[in-house]
């Protein structure tokens, strides 16, 4: 069991299955939502993700068919969900445990913050691939 939570502890979750490969997203939307140079994410099957000990999640539709879910108290991003999918996009900064996954690439490098330099050996993609 892998667990996670928000900054204030209002939202807690458990993951009973595998967390997918880690992707670092540099799109403008992720940068704005997280207030950082990029967002580190991984897929988790809907059936493996369970919210526990929470009052309610805030939700924002950041693009058509894609909603971002966050703690309404401290604003920690928890996950995103696209309509018609059977997985969530977990925001790895909310994890309390090691995801036991590997990072595989950087995406949306075409929208990367100008003040940040990539210094890694991971593949870089101008958009989502």
TrEMBL record:
Gene3D superfamilies: glutathione-dependent formaldehyde- activating enzyme (gfa)
PROSITE patterns: CENP_V_GFA
Pfam families: GFA (PF04828)
Keyword Lipid biosynthesis: no
Residue ranges constituting the CENP-V/GFA domain according to the UniProt record: 2-117
Keyword Acyltransferase: no
Keywords linked to the UniProt accession: Lyase, Metal-binding, Zinc
GO molecular function: carbon-sulfur lyase activity; metal ion binding
Highest taxon of source: Bacteria
Similarity field: Belongs to the Gfa family.
Record's protein name: CENP-V/GFA domain-containing protein
Organism, scientific name: Marinomonas ushuaiensis DSM 15871
Origin organism lineage: Bacteria, Pseudomonadati, Pseudomonadota, Gammaproteobacteria, Oceanospirillales
């Amino acid at each position: 069991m892998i667990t996670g939570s928000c900054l204030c502890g209002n939202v807690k979750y458990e993951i009973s299955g595998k967390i997918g490969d880690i992707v670092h997203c540099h799109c403008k939307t992720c940068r704005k939502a997280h207030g950082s140079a990029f967002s580190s994410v991984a897929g988790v099957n809907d059936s493996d993700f369970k919210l526990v000990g929470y009052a309610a999640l805030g939700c924002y539709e950041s693009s058509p068919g894609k909603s971002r879910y966050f703690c309404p108290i401290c604003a920690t991003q928890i996950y995103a969900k696209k309509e018609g999918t059977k997985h969530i996009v977990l925001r790895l900064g909310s994890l309390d445990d090691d995801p036991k996954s590997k990072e595989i690439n950087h995406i949306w490098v075409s929208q990367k913050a100008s003040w940040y330099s990539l210094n890694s050996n991971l593949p870089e993609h101008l958009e989502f691939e």
